[in-house]
Amino acid sequence: MVQAFMANVIFPTKQEDEQYKYTDDSHLLILETYVGVSVEVLESDVFRSDTPCRFKIVPSAKINIEKKNNKYRIFCFFSETVQYLIDNIDRTLQQSIEIEEKLSIDLIENLSEIKEDILQRLQHLKNVPNRLENPNIYHLDVGAMYPNIILTNRLQPSAIVDSTICAQCDLNRPNA
Questions:
Q1: Taking Cα atoms as reference points, which of 130, 136, 132, 110 lies closest to residue 52?
Q2: Quick one: which of 30, 79, 85, 132 could link to 59 by a disulfide (CB 3.0–4.6 Å)?
């Protein structure tokens, strides 16, 4: 790049990762990775918002979030994370409202009520580890069913395809 600069060759600037990444609907992404052929499953089941689920929160559970190139590494305990959210509720709400939802915080009429509700819920989450609640997600965990079927039955497509293979294909139709 130095030699290109000295020779007045135009080249793009070094690409830098964004500080935060968001989904298409403006929700913050903490970790954006996929480990091929390996699906990590805590519990295989169907979780529905209308079916109560019993679970236990372990306050000493370690939350471990890493990203390649040491962009961010977070090692903390659940109870510390909840306490951090309680201590930084104003900053967290501002981040959520202004950056994720792209609204002015001044437009929220009942901000103090929302803040109190969140604080009560966080405190309850911290103080009551044995929970019976309806999950807020719908989730069907198939336990890596599809990758396993593909791998065990060797259903992966051939890497090298020539015209004789294409001619035999069921999907090969004129003007396709």
A1: 132
A2: 79
Torsion of CA 111, 117, 119, 122, to 10 degrees: -140
Name the token pair of 87. Answer: 């201590």
Rounded Cα distance, 80 and 88, in Å? 12
Supply the Cα-derived Rg of the chain in whole angstroms: 25
pLDDT digits (tens, 9 = 90+) for 145-174: 555 555 555 555 555 566 666 666 766 667
The number of angstroms, rounded, from the C-alpha of 12 to the middle of its chain's C-alpha atoms is 30
Single-letter amino acid code for the residue at 96: S
Give the H or E element holding residue 21. Answer: strand 21-22
**Total residues found in the chain within this entry:** 176
Q: What is the pLDDT of residues 43-83, one digit of tens each?
A: 556 667 777 888 788 777 766 656 656 555 555 677 788 88
Q: Which residue has the tokens 């396993």?
A: 148
- The helix (run of H) or strand (run of E) holding residue 117 is helix 111-127
Cβ contacts of 99 within 8 Å, gap of 6 or more: 20
Contacts of 33 by beta carbon, 8 Å cutoff, 6+ apart: 67
d(CA 47, CA 122): 22
Contacts (Cβ under 8 Å, ≥6 apart) of 111 = 93, 105
